[in-house]
Amino acid sequence: MNEKLTSNSYSHAKLDVIKEKSLNYVIKTFDHDLSRVSKNILKQKQFTDKIFGNTSAISVPITEVTKQSKKISIKMPYIDGLNGSDIILYSHRSNFISFLSFVESYFIESFKKIDYKNIDSSILLKKIDDIYSNMRFKISISERKITSSINKTKNFTIPIGDCHGDFTLDNIIMGNDGRFYLIDFLTTYLETPLQDFVKLKQDTVYGWCVRKLSKSDKTKANVFFDKIKALPILKKIEIEYTREVKILNLISLLRIAPYVRDKVTENWLSYHLNKVTRDL
User: Is this structure's pTM higher than 0.90?
Assistant: First the structure.
């Protein structure tokens, strides 16, 4: 159990599983960027559970927060179940159908409560500059090329509303109780449900969660990815916010760069950044 948790954590936080009174708990410890970690914790604690039809989106409750000078630890109940990647690769078809229904309902609900706001491109350019200043490896795309593409549009109309912030398949758990749980919330420079949309694309279009798997597993996953991408609500979002999605999609991929620690991920990221930049 502990090994699986660690392998799925790209944040490189320390993860432990403990047992108290016959119940399992996850202890997650962070030792960097603690100011942002505190904001992420607050976001997860304040998330309003979403109930739609026969399914729901529930944040895994944080039952304890321990703050020290150079680290923060949180305690959460361990949720028995499958994350989104496991459902796609190894689970029964009925679970995948439930997962499809959850994703569709989640985005329909997310876009019900939005306010439109004109966003100056300077907000996006500042985020890009921050990313490049913290880059761990040199990517083939210059910051000037990206900023030039963004500057073609001075203002963007963005639907502002609640978002998870890191809505990847590994952060969605289908519990053995049939409910869907969300973990690892992320504060963003722009709180919009489009952030969740581009994070989901990171998996279903670019194959983030399967980048290190075998060719046969990738082929199997792509069959299910195609079914997710075909959901009417996702196709509608892609059409209605084409320009905004392209820009946020690029920034979402760029945000991975400061955390790259292996060659497979470096090659994966460079390839897709080049492809996405050409499409701007």
Answer: yes
